[in-house]
Write a structure and sequence with these properties.
Number of domains of chain B: 2
Oligomer: heterodimer
CATH class of the largest domain in chain A: Mainly Alpha
Structural class of chain A: mainly alpha
Largest sheet of chain A: none
Order of helices and strands of chain A: HHHHHHH
Number of helices of chain B: 6
Shape of chain B: globular
Shape of chain A: globular
Largest sheet of chain B: 8 strands, antiparallel
Radius of gyration of chain B: 21 Å
Structural class of chain B: alpha+beta
Distance between the termini of chain B: 42 Å
CATH superfamily of the largest domain in chain A: Winged helix-like DNA-binding domain superfamily/Winged helix DNA-binding domain
Chain lengths: 160, 243
């Protein structure tokens, strides 16, 4: 029941935070840890960010253990569908722009990238993001702000 | 240049376009169950746990359901306020009498060298340059805690991201918020009750003792508590000299 409810969001979080091919492994291990640590879970806390924090930690552990930086999102063979179907005139340009934006997000410093991924790709609130990344609210704000500024500089002017 | 709001909207749209496939939940549930039933290889403490996995899993699920439905009084602690940071839970309210007597060691405490300690744990073990080489180094609870000792001063570094490792009970005054480098921390000026909560949960007794003035902060994956430095400013300086 627990797994059924949170499986999709857990996979998405692990994939977007850079677990790559190990996404399924990360998620399974996270659920195992969640079950084993249930006694430390408090009712006044929300369950979803608590679980996602474990997912984020597992992702960290696994990307560290394989000795390289987390690759954002998707490995070859799982490239995202970047087409913009509602807009046939501008499909090519818009697709190009999304690809550019995605690679700019990939190139962000790790902490800014994690904050941007949580806030916009996973659409978590600032306080959920703070809990998932295990950092103070102020850091979420400043990392998101710096990440956004960098992205605007990278891709902001291209289409105007 | 594009406005921050438009950038945000564009990022959200991009996120929605990113497809992250997940296997059917039933398969995930099966795989998770298999892992929970598999004998553990993590720590001796956890290996000692004798109860069959499935029963634990069932109990865990029941607890979770109860928690989600709000059926248990969990979290409705009798104390006035609970603060959490860096694997430490601070209960501020009406503490009972301070624990007395000789402090017992942490579970599975071993005397090691600094290099051995660094190989035994998963988090970085740093030493405050201001204090120099520690006189004694201990690793406890299957590599969960590293304790460094100088005369009258103790520094615990521990795996503090996921679970509550220490509980502190104190009355007024409230712990003071401080900043160590750029990390948030707390300064507890007076003596207080300190309980170590073993990783194995119910199978080992929590270790309780009286603690002196303590600085608590988090750095990366690890939580830290520096105990025995009477001055707040000096404690923060020592913490900032960790290398």
């Amino acid at each position: 029941m627990l797994v059924a409810r949170y499986s999709a969001v857990a996979h998405r979080t692990a994939a977007l935070l850079g677990a790559g091919e190990e996404t399924e492994d990360v998620v399974q291990e996270a659920f195992v840890k969640a079950f084993r640590h249930l006694r430390t879970f408090r009712r006044e806390a929300a369950f979803r960010p608590w679980l996602l924090r474990i997912v984020a930690n597992e992702t960290h552990t696994i990307t560290r253990s394989r000795g390289r930086r987390a690759d954002l999102v998707l490995k070859a063979g799982a490239e995202p569908d970047l087409r913009v179907p509602d807009d046939p005139e501008d499909v090519a340009i818009a697709t190009d722009r999304r690809a550019k934006l995605l690679s700019a997000v990939r190139a962000l410093p790790e902490r800014e990238r994690e904050a941007v991924v949580c806030r916009y790709f996973l659409q978590l609130s600032e306080s959920e993001t703070a809990e998932v990344l295990g950092c103070p609210l102020g850091s979420v704000k400043s990392r998101t702000f710096r990440g956004l500024a960098r992205l605007r500089k990278e891709v902001g002017g291209d289409l105007s | 240049m594009i406005s921050p709001e438009d950038m945000e909207a564009e990022l959200r749209a991009l996120g929605e376009a990113l497809d992250t496939p997940a296997p059917p939940p039933a398969d995930v549930a099966r795989a998770v169950r298999a892992r929970l039933e598999r004998p553990e290889q993590e720590s001796p403490a956890e290996r000692r746990r004798a109860r069959p996995r499935w029963r634990w899993l069932a109990a865990g699920t029941a607890v979770l359901v109860a928690v989600l439905l709000g059926l248990t009084p969990q979290g409705q602690a009798a104390v006035a306020h609970i603060l959490r940071l860096a694997g430490v839970e601070i209960h501020v309210g009406e503490p009972g009498p301070l624990p007395s007597g000789a402090p017992s060691p942490l579970p599975d405490e071993k005397r090691v060298t600094l290099d051995q300690a660094r190989r035994m744990v998963r988090f970085p073990v740093q030493v405050p340059a201001m204090l120099g080489e520690p006189q004694d180094v201990r690793v406890s609870d299957g590599g969960r805690v590293v304790s460094l000792f100088w005369p009258g001063v103790r520094l615990d570094t521990y795996d503090g991201l996921l679970t509550v490792v220490w509980r502190k009970d104190l009355g007024e005054p409230w712990p003071e918020e401080v900043t160590v480098g750029s990390a948030p921390g707390w300064w507890i000026a007076g003596p207080h009750g300190l309980t170590y909560l073993p990783r194995s949960g119910g199978t080992q007794e929590p270790v309780e003792r009286r603690a002196g003035p303590t600085l608590v902060w988090q750095q990366g994956q690890a939580g830290h508590r520096l105990e025995g430095v009477p001055s707040r400013d000096r404690a923060v300086k020592i913490a900032e000299s960790m290398r």
